[in-house]
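User: Fold this; tokens only.

Assistant: Input:
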Amino acid sequence: MNSYSFWNNKGGVGKSFLCFIAACEYAQKHPETDIYVIDLCPQANVSETLLGGLRTSPKPMSTLLGDTPRRTVAGYLEERLSSPFRMILDVERFVSQPAKFNSYVPKNLFLICGDNLLELLSEPIRQASQLSLPHDAWAKTINWIRDLCVALEDRSGGRDATFIIDCNPSFAVYTQLALAGSDSVVVPYTADDSSRRGIENVIALLYGVGDTTMSAYAKLSFAQKAREENVSTPKIHTLVSNRQTLYDGKPSKAFEALSKTIKKTVDSIHKKHRSIFSFPAKLPSSEVVNIPDYHGASIVSAANGIPLHRLKAGPHDVAGDRVQINPDPLSRYTIALQKFVARL
């Protein structure tokens, strides 16, 4: 089972859009594989985009959230709460196929829709994980999303299945469920110091390592409990330098300077803790995928739910306004994204 969570403890790094684009490109390149996008962000941005963005998403989103049970990830978690330690084998009612609403999306891509109810469910989920019986209540609860992936893999039968999980920037319990359900974590960042701190938090929260203060507190919570209860945590798979500002086809000096600081920080952590990386023999800085700023392309793609392989240069309508996509930036972005998808 290949499962990737997209997470940074800092918001605004383009995580959900990257998740949408990567899932669609991977599905298009691997038609023999079922791609499941599990949206564990209460804002449900990746769900809205997959379902057609501004064009078509309001109606299917309303239907999925309004059904009983809700045909969303929150609906699945609600059912788990009613019987916390019994695995749900039939998850078909929580699965939607975006291609039925958005013809741009490959038919082998499926969605477990996001839901703002996640915020309200976080406290009862936390309480379920703290029950005194069974003795492994925390481990059983924190593995609910991994259970979901197993059930979805069974749904695919003889076909391969790959999971793309979009996470909220917070470290709420639903984010912990997402990460415990992943084999690998993709960390998008932008070149600023808050992104560097966000990456430090990712590593401290997941593995309990970092500077003295951060690691001391991290060891009191998720990282320590995961070790004690034999709950698997994902490896750091790829860092994505997202929305890279270019000047004459090269990264601007300001962007490159800040990016170097981030790479130096991650390399320093790698030197002491290689086991937390998917490719321990390689310096993380040498494996960073650089994705340039995509300007109008991202606006058109997100607003209209158009994956990159279906996006064309030229004028596009976005909510009644004309937006121009120029061929050179689109080509640079396409090449960079293909490099990233090839790593999955």
